[in-house]
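Dear support,

I submitted the protein below through the web form. The confirmation email said the job was done, but the results page showed an empty box. After a refresh the structure appeared. I'm attaching both so you can tell me whether what I see now is the final result or a partial one.
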Amino acid sequence: MTVPRAASEKEMKQEVIAQLRARIALQKEIEKGAHKSEAEELDEMWKWVKLSILVAGPVCVLACAKDILFVEHAHAKPGPMPDYMKIRNKPFPWECEDCALFDNECWKQCRAEMAAEGN
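What the results page shows now:
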């Protein structure tokens, strides 16, 4: 991009118009060479859709298989949890207030204690 030379106002306007015409001609020339028909664009799109599925499909299957077959899932260690893991600001809203919802061992122990107290 060039800046008009310092001259009279009429000469500067003529130079700006000439630059604009040159830019428009260049843009038309670029568009003429890069334009594709709608059918060509659709073919290109479907080529990339197929290529993406061809690559992404096996990658997803292999990633799932790897996770299922080779990665060990971390589980809670057996035994009592450290004291800092059982900090409760308020009791749980069920009958065994100190047991987590899915802690079956704690629930069994709590219910056994409740049954022993009830007898």
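Response: this is the final, complete result; the empty box was a page-load delay. The helical segments are 9-34, 38-70, 104-118.
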